[in-house]
């Protein structure tokens, strides 16, 4: 969508001639390292070139007016700077509201309201982090229009706090970090325990990353997500009875195998196994990518999916069908689900010359089994959240 159209819509909707400023925050995919972030492990995400745009103008009073071109039927949502608590009726606007509240509570002087229009081209509900994208685009907008200078990682942490304390999902820091810190053509290997990170160029030779959307309505994702969080927390507690560890991310595979019987419930044991092995795979994936060893990088993606399918149990028939049919295609080095799971998207590493066949065949297999079509997008890796000048 053209910027000009967004700006015109802003003026039409809010009926103002105020000068506007313009911001963007991407969505993200995760290459590998799934459900490891809240377990103190490694993740390896990258920011996409599609995301959320925001057009903003400051007001002279204490009103905040929100409008989303993706939820036009909800119209303008108006709140006051003095009434920022979570309200069900404000629906999607709770994400920017939560972010503004988090800034104020941290002590940033937000003393005027503003009008803000959002437009997102991240497929909605696809698990590509449209919510973290809205949080971060709001964050960079506040930073600029109030002339604040905020350490980017502190802003990332505020976004996670909004998810955890305001929205009520126990998510880790991966999404906000990938979106706040993203870099064109790079993935980020992030240690979620220490927040140490490094950029890795995504050099894929003749291969491209295809995103495959299950188009499954994501229901129960949040409750299932919190359930996994609790299972891992319980496994950790059991292990801590004998081991001086702060997170599952601190365990090597050998350590886990030697002590796994400390974990009382078999289900918790499976969850912890995934977290420990996935962490190891993620570190290896960086090495393989750096070495240009795409074949073994692809195999790690496959192992990750199998572990999420059988040990972590967050895939489901839609994601499994997409990934398994991707594995069957020629020119595919690897495929796995990405993000929280239970629907949403998978990714596959596909030879450029085979992309057309790949789409036709995977769609065919998926449709036969699931009854409706998936959607495909070729991933391009863009920059993190920023002002557009
Ligand atoms: C969601 C959460 C992230 C992460 C992934 C799973 O995207 O927001 O913090 O836990 O699921 O890896």
Keywords summarizing the entry:
389 residues; alpha+beta; Ribosomal Protein S5, domain 2; Alpha-Beta Plaits; 2 domains; six-stranded mixed beta sheet; 41% helix; globular; binds alpha-D-galactopyranose
Q: In CATH, what is the class of the largest domain?
A: Alpha Beta
**Element pattern in H and E:** HEEEEEHEHHHEEEHHHHHEEHEE
Question: What is the count of DSSP helices, taking H or I runs of 4+ residues?
Answer: 11
Radius of gyration: 21 Å
How many distinct domains? 2
Low-confidence stretches: none
Distance between the termini: 16 Å
Which strands sit side by side, in order, in the main sheet? Answer: 5-4-6-3-1-13
Task: Give a topology summary.
Blueprint: H1 3-14, E1 21-30, E2 42-43, E3 45-58, E4 63-68, E5 77-80, H2 94-106, E6 114-120, H3 130-145, H4 152-167, H5 174-181, E7 186-191, E8 197-201, E9 207-213, H6 221-240, H7 253-259, H8 266-290, H9 294-310, H10 317-327, E10 332-338, E11 345-351, H11 355-370, E12 375-378, E13 386-388
Parallel strand pairs: 4-6
Antiparallel strand pairs: 1-3, 1-13, 2-7, 3-6, 4-5, 7-8, 9-11, 9-12, 10-11
The protein binds alpha-D-galactopyranose.
Alpha-D-galactopyranose binds at residues 30, 34-35, 37-38, 171-172, 174-175, 339-340.
Describe this structure in words.
This protein is an alpha+beta fold. The chain has 2 domains: 3-200 and 383-388, Ribosomal Protein S5, domain 2; 203-378, 2-Layer Sandwich (Alpha-Beta Plaits), CATH 3.30.70.890. It has helices spanning 3-14, 94-106, 130-145, 152-167, 174-181, 221-240, 253-259, 266-290, 294-310, 317-327, 355-370; strands spanning 21-30, 42-43, 45-58, 63-68, 77-80, 114-120, 186-191, 197-201, 207-213, 332-338, 345-351, 375-378, 386-388. The protein is globular. The mean pLDDT is 97. The structure holds alpha-D-galactopyranose. Alpha-D-galactopyranose (GLA) is lined by residues 30, 34-35, 37-38, 171-172, 174-175, 339-340. The site of alpha-D-galactopyranose has 11 residues, from helix 5.
